[in-house]
Design a protein that fits this description.
The chain is mostly helical and about 900 residues long. Helix content is about 65%, strand content about 5%. Among the domains are: about 5-175, P-loop containing nucleotide triphosphate hydrolases (Rossmann fold, 3-Layer(aba) Sandwich); about 185-235; about 440-515, no CATH class; about 845-915, Arc Repressor Mutant, subunit A. Keywords: Plasmid.
Length: about 900
């Protein structure tokens, strides 16, 4: 190897490194990346590593996870050692199961687990050439894996053409540039390989090759056939000197291809279009690639070689394969694709790809095959491929109606992928001249108008009219377009937050009868008015989630939104966390944004406020970068509410004003209710109870819950406390009673906690008040809502101080102070500390009890009650290992060495605190 001393040294260090890592070799076609990959493979083999090689194939760049399957094909027997979850992930990704599309994170972790098992006996090197042709899904997963190889015995080295844009450009993996050879090295290589070359020809080759090793090796053989004059000068006739080196080489190969017979050229073309020469591993769900036969003539010409392992004909270089396709006529390519479609008749995606390329005229059978391929890609997480196949299916549709429907579906997927511009272009294409907007097109046009600009007025009329049109036409019960329209209308109604709008929506859905799906009816009752329609929603959400494997990505997020409205989001959060990166990195950006947003809301609810702020900021950046203005404002609103909870009043009011200025003119009641809640919460944090009361009654008047005001039940405790502190005792009691009579405790655990707390605060009878405080504080889900629980502890402590004396009040006040401190609710913590001082307790920073963090104290209490680490982790959304780590820190703080001593130690500390 000439002129590559620096690259060889870097690769040698790469192989001998003490732990796994990844490296990308990037250079122009023909600069010798493959030779360097051969070098690193040889070094690794001699070092005792197992080497697995694969290569990207342009013909498979549209097939989701084709490249990943190829790379892992030799390792798939190791999947038997994986757990059931990871086996399911692989089965779904590779088209062998019916589960949900795996996320990049889930599939990446499964791949890391697989590699860990495979490399347990000896180190493993994965060599990936021509990675620029890898499909986008595989690129994302392999990039995820490559960034996490540190500490393992697995290495990944990737060869990549620099002139082709790909997902590797943003993979953040270490790179080694492979430039053209220096003039000195180029001369040395030429003299080694062509020592008999005349000086004039050598000068011409050096000038034309420009240091490209492949050109240095290939061009001389063809220059010898050119004419020379009496001075020995040669004229380069086969190439245009102004072209880049790779294109000039394609012309060289093209000239050789044209000398072959028609039959052999046909074999080469079918092989090239099916990706021959990448590897002998099959693509997902398919057999081997096309098997070229009787092609010895191409071997003699130097275009093919024989694979020493399989005995198959393979292309000598990827440029040969590209040249074969470039030199074929359109009719020859279509004929080859027809043959290949039959070869892959048992694989829905590969067959559809070849059928689409072979078709010229509209063909409903081919269009249907492409639509089936798009559905398969959607299930496996390939949004880009799904849009492309649906668009091609529309082009091949035989009727305007089917063309419009398929373009509408393509636009729908594009919209969920955050490609608003593409969705709009597809919609414009879907409109027939002098024809009204089709129902399928309405889905996306209204979707874009809603999320891009917050249009709830026009979109509600537009979608309602489309639903009526389909209903009057007598569509079937499983009509996909109708279901999409209904779900979109419910989302529009939710954001509008107007009783009149919701009344129109519910009336329209009633006329549909059984045409409305069970999930749509869940969304209707959860997203609208849980006070009046929330009974039984929790159970209905659970039933729908039980069929998780068959849910579309967007239905999972919609059901999670329903779970939020009935305060059971926490039980689905592990699934959302597993899916957080998936929806974004596999293309469904809209669902990814909502997933992140829901995680933030649950983090706020359970008191993980630092994490919630980080999640919210990531979500805001994502929504802004993709033009989802509605979701961006919604994220700002909840970030403002979080700031208000923490007493960051200036930041809260800044976000409140930003959101309110955008949302109120558009009539987006969902957001203006949150801005009113920010005002209430900020005023409570400051102790301005009059302002808090005025903000609260702007959401709902005391003694009732305004219809379809989603913040009305959520601000129950706020209105009651503000009323009590401003002397409006009767209004406070009426509101608490209204919550009780409306059955709020049966709708959600949070509403049960706040209803019992509100009743306790407003009931004049001390015995009855203690009963309600006990109901609130001992509710089985109370610890899931620490902020509300701490407020109830604080109110209880204040009441106990007045009715039973200071000493009785201290435990409740201490719990409130510790929780507020742990949450970072500074003003509430100060208020609780002030009440403790009034009760006669001087807080001591050295007291062991206060040395325990809130989380440590909670874990200690649960462990003392006899729960295992696993059971504690399930309650607190922590891993058993994290629980164990917390207990490891708790024991020395308490001066004990075992779990058995926990109960006595905690009781002793409580007694010391009381004293």
């Amino acid at each position: 190897m000439v002129g590559r001393d620096g690259e060889r040294a870097r690769l040698s260090a790469f192989v001998t490194a003490t732990e796994g890592q990844a490296l990308v070799l990037r250079g122009e076609t023909g600069t010798g990346k493959s030779a360097l990959l051969d070098l690193v493979a040889g070094l690794s083999t001699r070092a005792g590593h197992e080497v697995i090689r694969s290569a990207g194939v342009e013909a498979e760049s549209g097939l989701p996870f084709a490249g990943l399957h190829q790379m892992l094909h030799a390792l798939l027997p190791w999947t038997d050692r994986l757990d059931a979850v990871h086996r399911t992930v692989f089965g779904t990704a590779f088209g062998q199961g019916d589960g949900r599309p795996p996320s990049v994170m889930a599939l990446g972790i499964a791949v890391l687990d697989l590699l860990g098992h495979a490399s347990a006996a000896r180190p493993l090197l994965l060599v990936l050439d021509d990675a620029q042709w890898l499909d986008a899904s595989s690129t994302e997963v392999i990039g995820f894996v490559g960034r996490r190889l540190t500490g393992s015995s697995v290495r990944l080295v990737v060869g990549l053409r620099c002139e082709v844009a790909s997902g590797w450009d943003t993979s953040a993996l270490p790179e080694l540039s492979v430039p053209a050879l220096s003039d000195t090295a180029a001369r040395e290589l030429l003299e080694l390989r062509h020592p008999q070359m005349t000086a004039p020809v050598r000068r011409l080759v050096l000038d034309q090759a420009r240091g490209n090793p492949l050109a240095l090796l290939e061009l001389p053989a063809h220059l010898h056939h050119a004419d020379t004059d009496e001075h020995g000068s040669a004229e380069l006739r086969l190439h245009d000197a102004s072209l880049p080196v790779p294109l000039r080489l394609q012309q060289v190969y093209g000239a050789l291809i044209r000398t072959l017979g028609n039959r052999v050229r046909g074999e080469l073309l079918r092989g090239a279009l099916d990706g021959v020469a990448a590897t002998s591993a099959p693509a997902p769900g398919a057999g081997r690639r096309y098997h070229m036969r009787d092609a010895e003539e191409a071997v003699t010409s130097g275009l093919l070689v024989v694979d020493p392992l399989s005995g198959d004909f393979v292309f000598r270089h990827p440029l040969v394969r590209s040249s074969v396709v470039q030199t074929a006529t359109p009719n020859e390519r279509r004929a080859a694709h027809t043959v290949l479609a039959d070869v892959h008749r048992d694989n829905v995606e590969r067959r559809a790809t070849h059928l689409a390329a072979s078709a010229v005229d509209p063909d409903e059978a081919v269009a249907a095959a492409l639509e089936a391929a798009a559905e398969s890609a959607t299930r496996r997480g390939g949004a880009v491929a799904a849009v492309a196949w649906l668009t091609r299916a529309a082009e091949l549709s035989e009727t305007p109606q089917e063309r419009s429907r398929r373009l509408g579906s393509a636009a729908y997927v594009a919209g969920h992928s955050g490609r608003f511009d593409q969705a709009q272009r597809l919609l414009r294409s879907a409109q027939a001249p002098r024809a009204g907007e089709s129902p399928a097109s309405v889905v996306t046009s209204a979707y874009v108008a809603l999320f891009e600009d917050g249009d709830v007025r026009q979109t509600h009329r537009q979608v309602s009219a489309a639903i009526e049109s389909l209903r009057d036409r007598g569509v079937g019960q499983s009509n996909e377009v109708l279901t999409r329209l209904v779900d979109l209308l419910l989302a529009i109604s939710q954001y509008a937050g107007a009783p009149a709008r919701w009344a129109e929506t519910r009336t329209l859905l009633c006329t549909l009868g059984e045409l409305a799906s069970s999930r749509s009816l869940v969304y209707q009752d959860a997203w609208g008015d849980v006070v009046r329609h929330g009974a039984g929603v929790r159970e209905r959400v659970e039933r729908e989630f039980a069929d998780l494997a068959n849910l579309e990505p967007w239905d999972v997020t919609r059901l999670a939104v329903a779970a939020y409205h009935v305060d059971t989001l926490g039980q689905y959060r592990p699934h959302l966390q597993r899916s957080a990166e998936h929806e974004i990195e596999t293309g469904f950006v809209r669902n990814g944004m909502t997933t992140q947003h829901l995680i933030m809301l649950d983090q706020i609810a359970v008191g993980e406020w630092d994490e919630a702020e980080r999640t919210g900021k990531l979500c805001l950046a994502l929504t802004l970068s993709h033009g989802y203005q509605l979701l961006a404002q919604q994220t700002r609103a909840y970030l403002g509410l979080l700031a208000a909870l923490r007493g960051q009043v200036e930041h809260a009011r800044e976000l409140q004003a930003t959101v309110d200025t955008w949302a109120r003119p558009r009539g987006i009641g969902f957001l203006t209710q949150i801005t009113d809640t920010i005002g209430t919460t900020t005023a409570l944090a400051e102790g301005d109870y009059e302002a808090a009361y005025l903000h609260a009654i702007g959401i709902t008047p005391p003694g009732t819950f305004h219809p379809y005001a989603h913040q009305a039940p959520r601000t129950l405790l706020d209105l009651v406390e503000a009323a009590l502190h401003t002397g409006r005792t009767q209004q406070a009691h009426q509101h608490a009673q209204a919550a009780h009579h409306a059955g709020l405790p049966h709708i959600s655990p949070r509403l049960a906690l706040t209803t019992y707390g509100a009743l306790a605060m407003t009931t004049p009878d001390p015995t009855q008040a203690d009963h309600y405080y006990h109901q609130a504080q001992t509710h089985p889900h109370a610890h899931h809502f620490p902020y509300e629980l701490a407020r109830i502890h604080l109110a209880h402590g204040i009441r106990q101080r007045h009715t039973h004396g200071p000493k009785t009040a201290r435990p409740s006040l201490t719990l409130a102070a510790q929780t507020f401190q742990r949450l970072g609710a500074a003003t509430w913590a100060e208020r609780a500390q002030a009440e403790l001082r009034v009760s006669g307790l001087v807080t001591r920073a050295t007291t062991q009890l206060t040395e325990l963090t809130w989380q440590e104290r909670r874990i200690a209490d649960l462990a003392a009650s006899g729960l295992t680490n696993k059971e504690i982790g399930e309650r607190m959304h922590l891993s058993p290992r994290t629980v164990s780590s917390h207990l490891y820190r708790v024991f020395p703080k308490l001066g004990i060495t075992s779990r058995a001593a926990l109960r006595d130690a905690l009781a002793r500390l409580e007694g010391e605190q009381d004293d």
